[in-house]
Amino acid sequence: MNRKLLMAAAAAPLLIGAANAQSSDDDERRESTVIVTAPGPERSADELVGNATALDREEILETLSGTLGDTLDRQPGVSTTFFGPGASRPVLRGLGAERVQVLTNGIGVIDVSAASPDHQVTADGIDAEKIEILRGPAALGYGGQAIGGVVNVVDGLISEELPEEQMSGEVFGAYNSVNEGTELAGRGQFTAGQLVFTVSGSMRDFDNYDIPDFAESSKLRALEEAEGGEEGEEEEEVRGTVENSFVETQTLAAGVSWVGDDAFFGVAVRQQTAEYGLPGHGHEEEHGDEEGGEGEAVEEEEEEENPFIDLEQTRVDIRGGVTVDNGFLTDVIGTLAIVDYEHTEFEAPGEAGTVFENSGVEGRVEFDHTFAGFEGAFGVQYSDREFSAIGEEAFVTPTDIQNWGVFLYESQELDNGVGIEGGLRLDGVEYDNEAFGSADFDLISASFGAHKHYEGGFWLGGQLSYTQRAPSESELFAFGPHLATDQFEVGDPTLGKEAGLNLEGSARWRGDNGGIGINLFVTEFSDFTYLTPGVAIVDGVLTDEGDGLPVFLFVQEDATFVGGEIYADLYIDDGLLGADWEYSASLDFVDAELDGGENVPFIPPVTFNSDISAEWGAYELGAALTVASNQDDSGIGQLDTSGYTTLDLRGEVDLSDFGVGSDGTEAFVEVRNVTDEEVRFATSVLKDLVPAPGQNIRVGVRLAF
Question: Of 34-38, 310-314, 391-395, 514-518, which range is least confident?
């Protein structure tokens, strides 16, 4: 923790310096974005106690990667579960998987990405209109699965108001040298009276990507060499390119909305397919000794087989709302999603293995209101999912999951610049598992916060929240080999509720030319659920190994998370060299320990991010720097992770200034990871087997009309 504080102190002058510059005229870029994901009345990011961020279309494309987690990785307090370019989920303040709720248009993605790190999130930035990030407990709005936060991907297929232009659209394309990969996306929208029609499509085609050196980390290679293992010597030959890291995705979507003066209603359909390799491990290779040893030729053949996932999801969204303004109710908004999801894990082409299915519905109705000086919302939410995994590597038996919730949120702004807010949510979760029977959980979440505005742009706020989370189906019912993690995972049907007591404080200053803020938090978890090595009865024998893999048990223990984010931005018009300058920086850190003294596994290191850009009319140059410290506080059975420093460069030309397209039309060239640095994410189960891509030259164009 001392190292983290030292790094924070070193970065503080850079962050504070971003708050000092000559004043400039108000500009749209300086306005705090409205966060629609937060419960209750619409508020800007600067008005929320927790650290919230919203990325618009331009910002998404500038950081776009193959997966959602990688796209958001440079945001304050956000890291990635990185499982190659085909799969990753965002990690918020060291919490991921079942503790971070990923939404599409305010409703859960309804996939199986939380069950395993090699499962792709079916929400993506390539065709997103906006991505919102709420760090810290957001259970009031979205239940216990949001105990770590929320990421909401807004695709804009259902319009809630008539567009300014009768017809508009966008075409985007990019080429990546690191994987000889292409990205394409298109979108069109037109109105006919009160009807708004929207269509979109996207695709990716990535080959295996290049890396600076060995696939295995130096720490793992040293460990294998010390153990004298021949397997480690063979793995050292994987160098320069990550095998089996290809990605192919396609998405087609369409929506239609009716927009009236005080109401709207719309329907959207999205069809998504993907095929991507699983680098770092081979399914058959892990079980090479199960046949009792049939010869070296068979083993060599198995080792050449590369597993991959073939995924398909169809999603229907229905959304409507009406403005009431009857003295109590102001707005009523309802959303329903119907999803059919399936993916097959192939051992090799033509050799289907395990089939995962997750079909379900989720609906939500929210009533915004005013009463006695309070603004707030109350509502109901319900979901019904059918999860199944059928095949040799199905580590969780089929489970039906039902979840209902009711919530209330209230806020009030007082005359003296003081505001108060609070809320309550009740949830019920019911599991019906094919092998272990049923399990029921009644959950409660509550929060109270207050803030105060000061003259000169200062703002202070604090919040106390309590959240309960039900164990997931994997934590309860897992029993079998989980090859993505190289573990034989054993759940516990007797697990109880996980509870988190969170205290968070925020301080911000916003001026005409920039601002600075800090968020600090501490969360005390009761019965924190995690995986740890252990023994279990496998095939009638008490053992620490199952199917050739070490046994890992889902257990519960109290834990403490302490961390925060410091962030700043600065704008100078007509500054040095006659350019308009924009600068932003952030530092985030989190320390997580179990009550027994061990470290929580897969916690991100202290990370500093900085971006600077200079604009001369139609031309813009920019640079981004990331410095991640060593992660020496590893969890049980994990190796420490080395830090890294990466530099990205970007140049773009606003083509609309030359009469091409409308505002937003641009051509760009980027060099990501200029120095070809070896990057390994401490939050990834593949951190010692597969590094992130090396140097990448990315060129592209965005045409808006």
Answer: 34-38
